Fold these 4 entries.
Entry 1:
Amino acid sequence: MKTDALIDTLVTDLAPTRIGFRRMVTLSLIAGAVVSALVFVLAVHARSDLSAMATSPRLWFKFAVTGSLAIAAFGLAPRLATPGVSARRWAYALLAPVAMALLGVMAECLSAPSAQWMTRLVGNYAVYCLTLIPLLSLGPLIALILALRGGAPENPGLAGAAAGLLASGVGSTIYALHCTDDSPLFVVAWYSLAMATVTLAGFFAGKRWLRW
Amino acid sequence: MNTRRLEEEWEDLMRAALTGDPSAYRRLLVSLTPRLRAVARRDCARLGMDQGEAEDVVQEVLLAIHLKRDSWDQTRPFAPWLMTIARNKMIDARRRRGKAATTSIDDFSEVLPAESDEDPTDRLDLDRMIEKLGTRQRDLVRSLSLEGRSVQETARRLDMTEGAVRVALHRALKALATLFREGGQ
C-alpha cells in the first residue's frame, strides 16, 4: 500500500474524540475506586472505633502516606503514557510519602519503648492487610490499565507499575478505614509489601497490555 | 515556512482533526509525511538500515499517530509528542532489524538523503501485514484502501452496514499496528 492510500484509510477511520486521554484515566480511576468502595462496604466494613479514632494522629498518618502516594502516582501514571511529556517532577513527588513514612517510623521509635517495636511491627492482622489491599486495588488497576491503553508509554512496564502504585494507593487508603494496626512500623512493613505486590502486578500487566 | 509556524499549523490542524474534521486531518497527515520521511531516512542511514525500510517506518508512525492521537494533550506543543512517537517506532524497527541483522552500519553512514516527497513503491511491510489479517478484514481493507472504494460501496459489496464497516476498519487498523510491532510474526 502506498503511503497516500494509507493516509486515505486513516482519514476514513477518523472519529471525533469524545473523552480525552487524561480525562479517561481520571474517570477510569474513579470507576475503579467506586468498585473498591462497594467491595469495602459489602464485604469488609470500617473499623468500629473509626469515629473515636478520628482525632488520632496515628490514623491520619496512614491516610497521609497512602493518600500522598496515590496523588503522586496519579500525576505520574498518565504522564508516563503520554509521548513527549516529562514525568520527572511527579517521580520526585513520590519521595513525599516515603519521607512521611520514615518520619512516622522515627516518631514511633522515639515514643514507644524498644521492647514493643517488634509487637507493633508484626501487628495483629498482617494477613488481612496482605490480602485485602490487593483485593481493593484490583478494580482500580484493571480500570487504569484499560485507560492507559489509549496512551503510548515509552516504557510500558514502568507505566504499568505506576498504574499499580496508583491502584494500591487507592486500595490501601480504603483499607486503612478498616485496619486497626495503627503503628507506623506496621504500615511501613506490611502496607508497603502489599502495595509492592500490586505495583509488580501493574508492571507485568503494563508489559503485556500497554505495548503499542 | 519556518519550523515554529509549521508546528503551529500542525497544532491547529490536529485540534480540528480531534473534533472530527476529515479535511484538516488529511492536510495534517499530508504535511507530516515528508517530514517523517526525511527523519526516517536520516535515521535509517545513521543506523545502517536499508533506505527501503524508511517508508515502512513512516507508515508505522502514521498508524501510531492515528491510533494514539487522543493522547496528545492539546495544551502542550504537538512536535515533541510527534517526535517521541516517531523515535519509538524507529527504535522498534531497529530492534526488529537487529534480530534479522542485515547491513553493517558503515555501508550507509555517509549517506544523508535530503527531504523528499516521493512515495516509494517498493513492496512494503504493510502489504505483508494486510495478507496476515483475517479474510473479512483483509477484503475490507483492500476494498477501502487499495481499490479506493468508499465506505458505502464497501458496505454494499461485503453486505455489511456502514457502521459495521467502520468498526471493522478500526479493528483492522489496530490489528495492523500489532502485526507491525511483532514484526509480522
Entry 2:
Amino acid sequence: MKVSQQRWGMFFAAAAVIGFFVFTLLPMVASAVIGLTNWTIGTTPRFIGLDNFRAIAVDPLFWKSFRVTTTYAVFAVPGGLLVAFVTASLLNRVNRTRGFFRTVYYLPVLVPPVASAVIWLWIFNPDSGLLNAVLSALHLPTLLWVYGESTAVPSIALMTIWGFGNMTLIFLAALQGVSRDLYEAAECDGANPLRRMWHVTVPSISPVILFNLVTGMIAAFQIFDAAYVMTQGGPNNATLFYVYYLYRKAFTEAQLGYASALAWILFVVIVLITIVILRTSRGWVFYEGERR
Amino acid sequence: MSGTVKLRRNPATPPDERPALRRRGRSISEYAGRLVVGVLLVLGAVFALMPFAWLIRSSLMTQDQMFMVPLQWLPRPFVWSNFSGAMTSAPFLLYLGNTLQILFLVVPGMLISCSAAAFAFSRLQWRGRNALFVLLMTGMMLPYAVTLIPTFIGWQALGFVNTYIPLTLPAWFAAGGAFNIFMLRQFFLTIPRELDDAVYIDGGSPWTVYWRVILPLNKGPLILVAVFGTTWVWNDLLNPLIYLADPNKFTLSLGLAAFRGLYNSQWGYLMAASVLVISPLIVLFIFAQRYIVQGIAFTGVKG
C-alpha cells in the first residue's frame, strides 16, 4: 500500500506543485533577475547590477510611497484589530441578537474593493458627502477627507476598518474557546470585568491576535485598489501607496527592471515586519500548551 | 454540581450568564452593563450599515437633489433613472457576463486542484509531502507584486494578453490557492482514518477515498472554497487591469473602476453601478452564510 500511496500522493499534489513552480517560484526568480537589469518595454535589457537599488535609495517618490504605506498600515491595522476585538467581545456577551449583529458586521466585507472605494469617495465628498453632512449637523468643522493632503491616508484607513467583520468572526470563534475555569478563578480572586478582560481574555486569545496582526500587516502593505480608484496617488502624492507606485513604474512608465527591484524591496520589508512581530510576540503571546 | 456539568457542555455561554449567578437575581449594575453592551453593538451596526444606507439613498436621487443646500437626507421623489443611466452609459450586463464566464472557468479548476492537493497533504503517505507542503504555504507570504511583472511578461510572450487565459488557467494549478489548500487540509484531517482503511480493505484506491469519501463528506468546506473563489474573481482589479485592454472584455470590478474614471462627477450613476456590482455578492452570501461563518471560525482558530 505504501508504494502505491507514493505514486498517488504525487499524482494528487501534481497540479498544485506544478502551479507553485510555474506561477510562484519561477516568476520570483525571474523578478530578482529582472530587478538587476535596466529593462524598459521595447528595449533590450542590459545587466546593471545593483544600479536600480542605488537609484531607488535616492528616489524621493520611493521614500514618499514607503512613508505613506507605513502610515496607512499604522492607522488601519491596529484600528481594525481594536474595532474587531471590541465588537467580538460584545457579541460574546449576548445570545439572542448575536446572529443578527454578526451578519450586519460582515456585510461590508462583501463589498468589492472597487465598489467600496467608489462609495466611500462619495461619502468623503467635501461638499455633499455623508461625513461632512454629519459634522455640520453637529456644528463641527468639516474636513477634506480623502481630498486633503493630511487627511487622505487616515480616511482610506477608515474605509479599510469598515471591513472589520472578518476579523470579528475570527476573534469571536477564539473567544468562545476560552476556558470557563480561568474566568471563574479570576472572579474568585475578585477581578473586575476589565481586569478579567486584560488578564484572562487577552492572553488566552493572543495567538489569534497575532494571526490577525500579521495577516493584516501583510495585506496593508499591498494596498492598491483604493489609490487606483479614489486618488491616483494624490493629492500631492499623499496616497502614493507602494504597490500603486510600483504599478505606475511597471505599466505606465514601462520600467520593468526598476519596478521588479521595487517588488523585491517590498518582499524584504514584509518578511522583516513579520519577523519583528513574531520576535516581539514571544513576550505577549501565550499558547495553551506552555501554560501548564 | 449540575451547574458545572452544564457549563462544560455549553462553553459558548458567557460567564455572566451562568446559572449560578443568575439565581442571585439581576443587580442594577448588571442591567447597566447589558445596556452599555447593547448601545455599543448598535453603534457598531450603524458604522457598518451607514455606507449602505448612503449608497441606496444616493442611487435613488437626482443629481440636482444630491447637491442641494441644505443637504437632503432622503430621495424625494424616488428615481430609478440612475440605474438606466448607468446601464446605458456602460455595458454592465456585458461586464456581468464576462465576470460569470471567468467564474465558470476559475471555480471548478480551483475546487479540483486545491481539494486534490489538500487530499495528498492530509490523507496519503508519501516522501516529500511535508517539505512540499511547507514550501507551498510559505508561498502565501510572497507579495503578489513580486510575481506580477514576470508573469505578465510570460503571458505577453505567449500572446495571451487580452484573453481570459492569464486570469483563468492558473486556477487549475491552484495558483494563489495556498490558503484554500491549507483550509481544506484542516477539514480533511478531522475525518476518521477508519473510513480510508475500510475502502482500502475493500480493494479501493486513493481515488475512491478522494471521490467517494473525502469530497462527499466535505461539501461545506468545498462550497466555502467556491465562495472564496467567486469573491476573489469578482473583486480582483489588478489582474484584469493589466491583462485586459479591450473594454468589451472588462469584468465588473474593472468596468466600475473605468466607469468611475469616465463619469467622475455623475454620483447617481456611480452609486447605481455600485449597487449592481455589490448585490449579486450579497445574494450569494445569504445562501452561503452558514459555511462562511463556520469556515472563518475554523481556520482562524486552528491556524
Entry 3:
Amino acid sequence: MLSKDARLRLFLDRLLSATPAANPDEAIALIATLLNAVEDEHSGVPANPSSWQSDGRMYPPQADMARTLPGLPGLTVYRSRGHRTLIGANGAFTIAEIHGGKVLVEKAGADGRGLPTPRDAKGA
Amino acid sequence: MESVPEPVEAFVAELTVQLPGVRPQIEAGGEKAGNWWIDLPGPKPITVEWRPGVGFGFSSEPGGYGEGPAEIFRDPERAAHRIAQLLDPASTVAPTGLRAIRELYGVTQKQIATKLKIQQAAISRLETRGDFKIETISQFVRALGGHPEVRAVFPDGQLPIHTTRKKTKAHGAPKSRRPARA
C-alpha cells in the first residue's frame, strides 16, 4: 500500500500522461477512471462512494456535486473538502487546493487549449 | 442566488459565538446535491460540508482528493462546539481524546463516574491515559449515550468487530437446568 500523498502524486502523474479529453464527460470519466485505479491498486480500502464518512480512500467528483458558474459558460466546478476541480467545455481541467489555491494539475483539452479565462468568457 | 439553508446559518451563528475571530466563507455546493461548504481560513484551516438530511462533516486533518469527513454531526450547535474544540488555540485538551468527547456532550466527570459506578478520580485517570482497552472506550461512549463501533477494513471488504460475544445457537445455547420431559 502507498501513503495518501504518494497515491495523490501517482494519480496526478497519470492524469498528465493520459490522452486529453474532448469534452466534460470525457474529462470527468478520465479523472474517475484514473483515481479509482490508483485507489484500487494502492489504498487497501474497498470502494464505497455512497458512504460519506472518510474511510481513508480518495474518491472522484460525483455528478450531483457539479455546479455551473455564472459568467463562465461551459465551465463546471466540482467542489470537495480540500480541492476545486474546474472542467471546461473542451475537456480541459484543473485541480487546485482550496486553502492556499495551489494548482495541482492543469490539463488542456483535446483541442490543445486550456480552461477559458474570465477575459475569454467576456469575449474581450 | 440561492439562500443559505437555515442549519448552515445556525452553525455559522454559533461558531462566531464560540470563536469570535473566525471568518467563515460560505459557498454553495452541487446544484443537485444541495450541499454547502463553510471554509474556515486560518493557521489551521478547516472546511465543513453541510449535506441536507445528514448534517455537518469535517476533519481535523487535511484529507485527500475527494475524501469524506472523519466527523459528522447532525446538530449545527454541536458541530460548531466541536469545531471550536478543534480550533481553540488555548485548549490544553487533546481534541480527539475522551475528555473532549465528554465535554462536547456536556457531561461532567462526576456524572459519568456515577453511570459507570466508579470513582470520579478513575475517570480523571482514564482521560489522561494514552492507551485503553476497547471495552473501556465502549463503556465510556455508551455512558455518554453513544454507540461504540470497531471495524476491520480489508482491501476487499469490511466488517464490524464485536467486543462482547453474544451466546447464540451456533455457539451452543446454555443448557437448561431442568431435565427434558418425555
Entry 4:
Amino acid sequence: MSLEQSLAVDGTTPGVTAGPSSRPRSVIEAEHLTKSFGAVTAVSDLSFALHPGMVTGFLGPNGAGKTTTMRLILGLERPTSGAVTVGGRRYADLPAPLREVGALIDATAVNKGRKAYSHLLALARSNGIPATRVDEVLKMVGLEGVARRRVGTFSLGMAQRLGIATALLGDPPVLMFDEPVNGLDPEGIVWVRTLMRSLAAQGRTVLVSSHLMSEMAQTADRVIVIGKGHMIADSTVEDLVNANSARTVRVVTADPDRFTELLQERGAAVTTGNDGALSVTGPDSKWIGELAASAGVVLHELTPVRASLEEAFMNLTQSHVEYHAGPGAGPQGGLDGGPPQAPVPQAPAPQAPVPPAPMPPGPPPPGRPPQGPAQAAPQPGRGQ
Amino acid sequence: MSQLSTAGPSTGPTPGGSPSVGHYRPATWWDAIRSEWVKLRSLRSMTICSIITAVLAIGIGVLVCSIVASRSNHTTNTDPTTLSLAGLALGQLAVAILAVLGVASEYASGTISVSLLAVPKRTRFFLCKLGVITALCLVLGEVLSFVAFGIGQAILHGNYHSASLSQPHVARAVIGAGLYIAAIGLLSAGLGFLFRSTAAGVAVVVGVVFVLPDIIVPIVDGVAGTHIAKYWPTLAGERIFTVTPGGSDVMAPWTGFLVMLALVAAVVVAAWVVLEARDV
C-alpha cells in the first residue's frame, strides 16, 4: 500500500466534502495556560486555538516553552493555571486518545531493548487499534525492514521515523510534532515537510514546533511565536514577515550615483552594496520603477527583497531569548542551528529575479510557495 | 489489507471504518492490560529475570534437598516442605528485580511519556501495569513453588522424611510461597513507581528483604530484637512458607502474610498518590 493511499483517509471525494462536515471537530484550545516549575515560569498566560486543515508552526528559541506547552496539551504536565482542551475535552478524558491526537514529543524516549514492532504494538493495544495498523505505519515511515530490530540499534533519523509512526498510529485528526526533523537527512526533511502538508490537506490539525525558521517558512500556514513562555505573535507567515521586517528593494542601474541622488531627494534611504547594487528602503518597487522611467534611468534589476521569516523572528524574539551567547556572537546567539545571517537577508525560498522595468504591477513575489487547498494533492513517492 | 486503503470515492462508511472519522470504540481497561502484557513480554530483561528465578528456585531447592538426603545421620530436623522451597527465598530477589525493571524501565527510557499519552487515565495505567506484573510473578511463583516442592520431595523420599500436599498445612505452604513471590513482585513494582529508578527500587527492595533484617535483628538485643524479627514485614510474610507452627516469637502464617500485605498496600498507595500528583 502506498503512503498516499494510507494517508488519504477520507478517500478522494469524501475527504473534501463529507469528511470535514461529518467529523466532529477536534481542535486544540488553550486559555490562559500557565505553567511554573518552582520559581521558573515556563509558560505564561498562553491563549491560542488550532484550526483543522492547516499546519501551525510553533516557533520560539530554545527554552521558550514549546515542549512544555505541548506536554501541557497532552496532559503530561498539569497547568499551574489556565486550561487546554482537545475537541472540547481534557486530553485525559478522551475515550481513545491515540485515535484523537498523535504526538511526537521525544523520539528517543523509547525503550532501547524493545523491537520497533513491539513498541508500536503495545501502544496500539492500549487504544484498541488493530495490529495490522502497526505494519501499515511502519511501512508509511519506511521502517518496515527494521520492524523486528531493537530500537537501541536505530539512528536518530530512524528513531524520528518511529516517533512519527507512533503519532500516525491511531490515524488521528490532530497531530503534534516536536522538532520532527531533528536528525533527519535532507531527503527525510523533505519527506516530513510533505507529510505535514498532506496531513493538513486531509483536513487534519497539525502543530509542528521548531526553532528553525526556514523550516517553518516552507511548511506552516500559520505560526505561533513564543519567547520565555510568552505569546509574541500568532499570525500567518506572510503577515508576520510583513509586520516585522523593513521592506527593501534591490536596484541595479546603469547610473547608480544619479539614481541614488534622485531617491534620496525624495526621502528614500539608499545604501550601496559591494556589487554596486542599491538597497532602497522606503518606497516599493512600483514607485521606484516609475521614478526611473520618468527620469530616464535605465534599470537592470528591480527586486523587492522580502526579509526572511528568520529575520522577522529574530526581530521579534530578541528580548525573549532565554540563552544568549556571549557578547560578539551577534543577535542570533542563542538560536542554535540557525546559520549566521548574511548582511542582506534572503528569503528561504528561491526568489525569482524580477525582470527589469516596466514593473508589472501587483504584489511582491511570494517568499514561499503558494499554499492552501490548491496544494492538497499528496506528492507521490514519499517514504517508499 | 488495511481499513484505510479501501477508502474510495464512495460516500458510505468503508468496511472496518476509518478511525479518524470518529467511529471507534473507547479504549478499555482490558486494552490497557493487553498493552502492558505486550510491553512486559517484549523486554529481554523480563525473560532473563524469569529464567534466573526458575534456576534459583529449583536449583537451590534441589541442592538443599540433595545435601540433606545424602547425609546418613540427620542432625537437622527441618521440615521437608520448607527445605524444598528454600530456592524461592533466593529466587525472590530475581523476581524483585523483574518487577522493579518492569516499571522503572519506562522512566529510564522515557517511554513513560508515550505510555501516558496512550493511557492518560493514570489510575488505569497504574493498576493495569501493577496487575500484569503481579500476575506474571504469581504464575511464576506458583509454578516454581509446585515444581520445586515436587522435585524436592522426590529427592527426599526414602532418604529423609518427605511431605505430601495432603498433609496438614503443606498445600497452604506451597501455595503460600507462590503468593509470597507475587507480593514481592507487587511491592517491587510499587517501589519502581515510587522511585522511578531501577537502582533505587532494587536497592530498597533488597534492603527490606535481605539486608536490614540480617543486620538489625542480630544487633538489637532483648524484646526489641524479638519484636523486629517477628513483625518485620518480609520475615513475617515468609512464615507462610512454613508448615510447622512456630512459638510465640513468630507470627502465624496467614497473620504474618497479612502484615507483609499491609506494607505492600502502603507502598502501592504511596506510589499511586505520587503518580497522580506528579508531572511526568
